[in-house]
């Protein structure tokens, strides 16, 4: 099989593929495959699930070009397919981001909800996996989970300055190389939402003469 390497970016141009990508479990599969290629059994082991629960999702991801078979191995006289992501990053085509159209509204809602759902499932799985590891004698360490939501009134200038500082931290996080992690390092997940929060307002009624 030819040597394969994921492309930097994959543009999502249709709503169906976006919905495939938005599923929390499929999102976690893609995250697990990001560092390198794995078999379904290896993915299932990391997720604490039975491989039989993953084949449907693996097939959908492969069908829509989000992962692909890059190798195969023989284990216990059984051939196991090896998969890898097709791109390191997925981005929505601008035509899917037009909120003034029905498809644009569905696409926007799907893309907004996906990180929240995936984060929820990832935190719950991580807590369960950590509890299991502690039961098996793993060394305890301080929790470093931060979940935070606050509202603040900001001017446009203040919001721009804060967003710039936040973007600098995001750039630093994204620039961390996997192979730079030393012994005892663990995967860290980061979910960020910073946006103008609008409320509905009653329309002004003109005074009748």
Keywords:
single chain; 209 residues; alpha+beta; Arc Repressor Mutant, subunit A; 3-stranded antiparallel sheet
Brief sketch in words of this structure:
By secondary structure, this protein is α+β, with helices and mostly antiparallel strands. The protein is 43% helix and 15% strand. It has a domain at 7-139: Orthogonal Bundle (Arc Repressor Mutant, subunit A), CATH 1.10.10.
General description of the model:
By secondary structure, this protein is of the alpha+beta class. The protein is built from six helices and five strands, in the order βααβααβββαα. It has a three-stranded antiparallel sheet with strand order 2-4-3. A two-stranded parallel sheet has the order 1-5. It is globular and about 80 Å long. The protein starts with 6 loop residues before the first strand and ends in a 34-residue tail after the last helix.
Radius of gyration: 21 Å
CATH superfamily of the domain at 7-139: Winged helix-like DNA-binding domain superfamily/Winged helix DNA-binding domain
Order of helices and strands: EHHEHHEEEHH
Strand order in the largest sheet: 2-4-3
Mean pLDDT reading: 88
Low-confidence stretches: none
Separate helix tally: 6
Number of strands: 5
The helix fraction, in percent, is 40-55%
Strand % is 5-15%
From the 3D structure, determine the CATH topology of the domain at 7-139: Arc Repressor Mutant, subunit A
What is the general shape? Answer: globular
The end-to-end span amounts to 81 Å
């Amino acid at each position: 099989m030819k040597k394969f390497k994921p492309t930097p970016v994959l543009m999502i141009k249709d709503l169906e593929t976006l919905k495939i990508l938005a599923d929390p479990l499929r999102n976690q599969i893609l995250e697990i495959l990001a560092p390198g290629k794995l078999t379904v059994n290896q993915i299932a082991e990391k997720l604490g699930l039975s491989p039989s629960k993953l084949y449907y999702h693996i097939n959908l991801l492969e069908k829509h070009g989000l992962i692909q078979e890059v190798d195969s191995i023989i284990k216990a006289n059984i051939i196991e397919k090896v998969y890898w992501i097709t791109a390191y990053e997925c981005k929505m085509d601008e035509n899917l981001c037009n909120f003034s159209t029905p498809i644009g509204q569905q696409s926007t809602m799907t893309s907004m909800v996906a990180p929240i759902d995936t984060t929820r499932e990832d935190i719950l799985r991580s807590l369960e996996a950590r509890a299991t590891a502690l039961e098996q004698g793993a060394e305890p360490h301080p929790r470093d989970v931060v979940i935070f939501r606050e509202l603040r009134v900001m001017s446009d200038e203040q919001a721009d300055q804060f967003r710039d500082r936040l973007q600098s931290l995001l750039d630093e996080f994204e620039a961390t190389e996997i192979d730079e992690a030393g012994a005892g390092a663990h995967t860290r997940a980061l979910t960020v939402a910073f946006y103008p929060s609008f409320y509905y307002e009653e329309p002004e009624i003109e005074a009748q003469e």
